Amino acid sequence: MSDEHQHPTVDVYLRVAAALVILTVLEVGVFYVPAFHPVLVPVLLVLSAAKFALVVMFYMHLKADSKFFTFLFGAPLLLALGVMVALLFLFFGALTLRGGGAAGAG
Amino acid sequence: MIEFTEFVHKGLTMSTNLFGCTFFVLTGTHGAHVAVGVLWLLTLWVRALQGKLGPANAMTVEITGLYWHFVDVVWIIIFTVVYLIQ
Hints:
heterodimer, A: about 110 residues, 2 domains, flat
């Protein structure tokens, strides 16, 4: 038992659950508010990142675990994000080139 | 499954276009993982009711929880990217 990390109390888990519900309601709410549409994508990404962080920190215990586990989880996540962003640029670059080529041919 | 059926009836299948393929593979794979997680959790619940889930099985519960909440964070991304972002 001595090597076990300190788990949060039930109260903390319930507060996190409440925060997740509120964030989800906000996400769905901003979707239906026309004023948010110009900034919908960044707002949704920030809200979902907050939910992601809450679940990983509390329900997957990374907050109480060794920093090594945070590194094991975070480093591949950053790598995956980098690959995804690179592929998006590649995809849009290919589309732009194809569009430019078509325009040139026409 | 209701959503899948509705989309197929409206003409969106895995072979319709890139969105159809991505949507069905992404949500289908996630659904399969959720189904496995539900079965896993139910198994633990039954074992707990039988009194067979003591402190010696703490790691089993921990691993189940990690699996379930990993599926949870994947859903957070899928929900935002597939259902909310236009």
